[in-house]
Specification:
The complex is a heterodimer of chains A (665) and B (298).
Chain A: H1 16-24, E1 31-34, H2 53-74, H3 79-83, E2 90-96, H4 106-123, E3 127-133, E4 137-139, H5 147-155, H6 166-177, E5 184-190, E6 209-216, E7 223-233, E8 239-250, E9 257-266, E10 269-279, E11 283-292, E12 300-305, E13 316-323, E14 327-333, H7 340-352, E15 356-362, E16 373-377, H8 384-391, E17 395-399, E18 404-405, E19 419-422, E20 442-443, E21 453-458, E22 463-468, E23 485-488, H9 504-517, E24 525-527, E25 530-534, E26 539-541, H10 551-554, E27 558-562, E28 566-572, E29 575-582, H11 585-588, H12 595-608, H13 634-654
Parallel strand pairs in A: 2-3, 2-5, 5-6, 7-13, 14-15, 14-16, 16-17, 17-23, 24-29
Antiparallel strand pairs in A: 3-4, 7-8, 8-11, 9-10, 9-12, 12-13, 18-20, 19-21, 21-22, 22-23, 25-27, 26-28, 28-29
Helix pairs in contact in A: 2-13, 4-5, 7-9
Chain B: H1 3-8, H2 11-14, H3 20-37, E1 47-52, H4 64-70, E2 74-78, E3 85-91, H5 104-121, E4 125-131, E5 135-142, H6 147-156, H7 166-176, E6 181-187, H8 193-205, E7 209-216, H9 218-221, E8 229-233, E9 239-242, H10 244-269, E10 272-277, H11 283-296
Parallel strand pairs in B: 3-4, 3-6, 6-7, 7-10
Antiparallel strand pairs in B: 1-2, 4-5, 8-9
The chains are: A alpha/beta (665), B alpha/beta (298).
Chain lengths: 665, 298
């Protein structure tokens, strides 16, 4: 039995009070009239002060009452007793199935630790259930007391490629623990990776867990490096450029730096190599800008380390070669000269990394051949010529004209605005930009329709970037169109805001054009473990070139999971596209969680010592742990108060205040 | 005894009646009615004795059967004609005011009133003496028609007294009673038995027939006390803390000894001892009186 508030047992010292009352009290007995005292004889105090039986019974009853009161406030864990005599509780054995567990011998050590935890729990009479946590938290088998079944469940453990969020895991275990009557103890086998911590630390606490035991299977000298890369094909198709970023992370006792050789291969043939020194905790960027391709049909290259580390999955990446044929982007001013500076900024951003060719024009001119993207400056309205482009499947970015200076509006508006809201769910990689470093001094009004989608807004709610519903009529938009339209409240003249001057402006503009030109449904890159909803008539080929969806499934929209990193092919009505499923960058960072934090995480559950009830209700305990409790168990309170009431009624019924006992001489 | 009569003699029923006269009439009439209807009735209220025929006696009362057998003329004499003097000694001391829901004093009052009614019904002379630690009132035996009323009135207004001095009261009354008759003592007899016997002896020696109606509450016989209690003497206010075990054992033994001593004393004096419990109907007590009357009438 556990006691949530054992200090209330101090009340048991009150046992002395009824004992003293029964032992020494000399209360006056009640008076009754009697005809004559001639036949009466006064009782004398007994020599031994021996008590009558009912006084002992009454004393026992009062002690029982006091004991029940103390236990009630001490909050014992009665649930396991109530649920079934002899049941020791439940043990959740949860294993980290994220990518990092593939590192070195972690998977082997995790299996061994989990197996030992299973054996220990079964020996203690507990019921065991095995879970793994990766992209999702799933049970590997039902709760069981059969050792064979438990170990068979453990055999199904396989670390994947996804990132595990510890908070999501604990919250899921918390929900599952509520399905059991008895106390639920959690043994979590993991590599205690710092990058797996949730943004909200409160999610780490499973309120229904009676205890948490974290088994760290990482090694103190672990080292990991990982690759990220992009590749582009030159215009002639015979050469390519590859940009590589290498992240290195390590445990405390690992070397501070290592030297590695990076290879660029195609079908086993090494096309380029370079030696690089990697520093723990750092990112090294490299560019291979002139790689001779074996032939023009090469569409992807393999980037890999000559010597892999223990986590091989992130030491090799497949990089699709994007065409370097510059996509024409039509830049046009609503009025001549209205956005001279903005045009320069955008032109520079698009052409700086290659892949786009900006062509200037006006609303009166015709769009360039093959141009499917138009950036219109100085207006929030679609010029007719651009409207026709959008109608025919083109795309447009409308850059507002000069915005009003913020300080010319009514005095309550701020002089400087910052970004306060970002739609991170949009296909544009908006969350990757450093919006917090930007300031707006002027901002144009962007009237919004109900179907418009605000992608970026300031702290005071002024929209900055809006995706317009191209099907809306009556606002200058075509009644129906296959293209996309974005509106930007920033005139991009360099004076209204810091945006055109910030390095991320290039990323933003290229991302917008990429999105315009990319698939309607899917981004170009996904993290392993992601689930994506595919539109109709999109076929997905896995890394081996096999179809992932059946013919019937292709005929309807559906969801598909990309668990394995690699290069996927999408067959869409617009043509073939490549999708890179990459390892989550966070998973490659194997920096360990400090031991003190692990200990504190465990201690939070030990201090709480909840009873595993179904409905935890946080009621403050003296320790202040908000998740300490399971006092909400109705059955417990019903039993406790029923016993208390019965004892009180008995005491009232038999209470005898005449505690002075005399005995006939 | 019929159920109606018995019911009418139940102290709980009597407590709801109004005047003492009504109580007495109800009790006696109910008793007599029951007696007459009982198949075991064999007690004659009318005929008392034979006496020799004197010239001028009513020939209707000559027992010709006796004459036929004995050639002697005898006349039947009825009880009503005996004109016995009956003296009621009524104890209204403080100790009599004990018992719930009906106190001993109430029961004694009803008993005395019933006895008075019965006495007058039998045309005996009725007298009353009320006492506690002193003699509160005395009415010499009288056969006057208002003797019953005066007795009932005196009984009605005799409230609980203070102490008890049965011995002293009997001593005084014994000197006042010159005419032989019946002496009916209605009391709870909380006195020294020997002293009481010595007080009653002169009456017995003077030829008075004595009947002692010992009025008790059941709590005196079987105290219902289960916890240590302080018992306060009603007359002296003395308090005694008693153990319920003593009340169940020692007290009962002592009280039984006292009762037995009283009975022995009464037998020694030739007096009838009739125990009257306050929670029992009065019929038995009255029947005992009637039997006593039948045996002892001069």
């Amino acid at each position: 039995m556990n006691l949530l508030a054992p200090w209330f047992l101090v009340g048991l010292a009150g046992f002395a009070l009824p004992w003293m009352l029964h032992r020494f009290s000399r209360t006056v007995p009640p008076e009754r009239p009697f005809p004559s005292a001639r036949f009466l004889e006064a009782a004398t105090p007994p020599v031994s002060r021996r008590r009558r039986l009912r006084y002992r019974a009454l004393l026992s009853l009062r002690w029982l009452l006091l004991l029940l009161l103390c236990l009630l406030f001490a909050q014992p864990t009665w649930q396991s007793w109530l649920a079934g005599a002899g049941e020791a509780g439940v043990r959740f054995v949860a294993l980290d199935a994220s990518l990092s567990m593939r590192h070195d011998e972690r998977e082997v050590r995790a299996r061994a630790a989990a197996g030992a935890a299973i054996d220990e729990a079964l020996a203690a009479g507990e019921t065991v259930q095995v879970f793994e946590g990766g992209a999702a938290v799933r049970s590997l088998g039902p709760a069981t007391r059969d050792p064979n079944a438990a170990h068979a469940a453990l055999a199904g453990y396989r670390p994947g490629y996804a990132r595990l969020d510890y908070g999501r895991l604990m919250q899921r275990l918390d929900v599952l623990a509520g399905e059991f009557e008895g106390p639920v103890r959690v043994t979590f086998v993991t590599d205690a990776q710092a990058s797996a911590m949730p943004s909200r630390l409160g999610a780490l606490i499973a309120t229904r867990a009676a205890s948490l035991d974290i088994v760290d299977v990482a090694s103190a000298d672990d080292w990991n490096h990982s690759l990220r890369a992009e590749g582009t094909r030159h215009a002639d198709g015979t050469r390519a450029a590859v940009r590589v970023a290498i992240d290195a992370s390590a445990a405390a006792e690992a070397p501070g730096s290592v030297r590695r050789e990076l290879l660029i291969r195609h079908d086993g043939e090494i096309l380029a190599r370079r030696e690089v020194e990697l520093t723990r905790g750092g990112t090294r960027r490299m560019v291979f800008d002139d790689i001779a391709l074996p032939d023009r049909t090469v569409t992807a290259l393999e980037i890999a380390f000559a010597d892999t580390d223990s986590l091989v999955a992130d030491d090799v990446v497949m990089v699709p070669l994007r065409s370097t044929r510059a996509e024409p982007v039509w830049l046009l001013e609503a009025r001549a000269g209205v956005a001279r500076d903005a045009t320069v900024f955008v032109e520079t951003a698009l052409e700086s990394g290659g892949g786009f060719a900006a062509e200037r024009g006006t609303v009166a001119s015709a769009p360039p051949d093959d141009a499917s993207v138009a950036i219109v400056f100085g207006t929030g309205e679609l010029p007719p010529v651009v409207g026709r482009m959008v109608t025919n499947g083109g795309h447009a970015l409308l850059v507002a004209g000069d915005g009003a200076a913020n300080d010319e509006r009514d005095g309550v508006e701020p002089a400087v605005r910052r970004i306060g809201r970002i739609d991170a769910t949009h296909a544009l990689p908006l969350a990757e930009l450093r919006w917090s470093e930007l300031r707006w001094y002027e901002l144009a009004d962007l009237p919004l329709d109900d179907d418009d989608r605000v992608l970026v807004a300031t702290e005071d709610g002024r929209p900055v970037l809006v995706e317009v519903d191209a099907d809306v009529s009556g606002s200058g938009m075509p009644a129906s169109g296959a293209g996309r339209v974005l509106r930007l409240a920033d005139p991009l003249d360099g004076r209204a805001s810091d945006l055109p001057l910030h390095p991320d402006f290039v990323t933003l503009m290229r991302a917008i054009v990429d999105w315009f030109l990319g698939s309607k449904a899917l981004p170009e890159r996904l993290d392993a473990g992601a689930r994506v909803r595919l539109p109709v008539n999109v076929e997905v080929l896995d890394t081996a070139g096999d179809a992932m969806r059946s013919l019937a499934e292709r005929g309807e929209a559906g969801e598909i999971a990309f668990d394995t990193p690699g290069l996927y092919t999408l067959e869409t009505p617009r043509g073939q596209e490549r999708l890179v499923v990459r390892i989550p960058a966070a998973e490659s960072r194997i920096d360990p969680l400090p031991a003190a934090e692990v200990g504190a995480w465990e201690a939070r559950h030990t201090a709480a010592e909840p009873t595993g009830a179904r409905t935890p209700q946080a009621r403050g305990t003296p320790t202040g742990v908000e998740t300490a409790t399971v006092l909400g168990d109705t059955a417990y309170w019903l039993w406790a108060f029923a016993l208390l009431l019965a004892a009180s009624l008995l005491e009232l019924a038999y209470a005898n205040r005449r505690l002075d006992v005399r005995r006939d001489a | 005894m019929t159920a109606t009569a018995t019911r009418l003699l139940d102290p709980n029923v009597l407590a709801r009646l109004g005047t003492l006269e009504l109580v007495a009439r109800t009790v006696v009439d109910g008793l007599i009615t029951g007696l007459h209807r009982s198949p075991h009735f064999g007690f004659s209220q009318e005929f008392a004795e034979y006496r020799a025929y004197n010239e001028g006696d009513d020939l209707r009362f000559v027992d010709w059967n006796v004459y036929a057998r004995t050639d002697r003329t005898y006349v039947k004499r009825f009880r009503g004609e005996t004109n016995t003097a009956v003296m009621l000694l009524f104890d209204c001391s403080a100790s009599m005011n004990f018992g719930e829901p009906v106190s001993k004093l109430d029961v004694a009052r009803w008993l005395a009133a019933s006895l008075a009614y019965l006495v007058r019904r039998q045309h005996d002379a009725l007298g009353l003496a009320v006492f506690d630690e002193t003699i509160r009132a005395v009415q010499p035996p009288s056969a006057r028609p208002d003797s019953l009323i005066r007795t009932l009135v005196e009984l009605e207004r005799s409230e609980q007294g203070s102490g008890t001095d049965i011995v002293g009261a009997i001593d005084v009354l014994a000197r006042q009673l010159r005419r032989r008759g019946l002496v009916l003592l209605v009391s709870d007899l909380y006195a020294d038995v020997e002293a009481l016997a010595r007080a009653l002896e002169p009456l017995a020696h003077a030829g008075h027939e004595l009947a002692v109606f010992h009025v008790l509450d059941r709590q005196e016989l079987e105290p219902d006390v289960d916890t240590v209690s302080r018992l306060r003497d009603i007359e002296t206010d003395e308090t005694v803390i008693v153990d319920p075990r003593f009340l169940a054992d020692g007290y009962r033994r002592r009280f039984e000894e006292h009762l037995e001593a009283l009975q022995r004393a009464c037998r020694r004096l030739g007096a009838d001892y009739i125990r009257v419990l306050s929670d029992e109907p009065l019929d038995r007590a009255l029947l005992d009186y009637l039997n006593f009357r039948a045996r002892r009438s001069p």
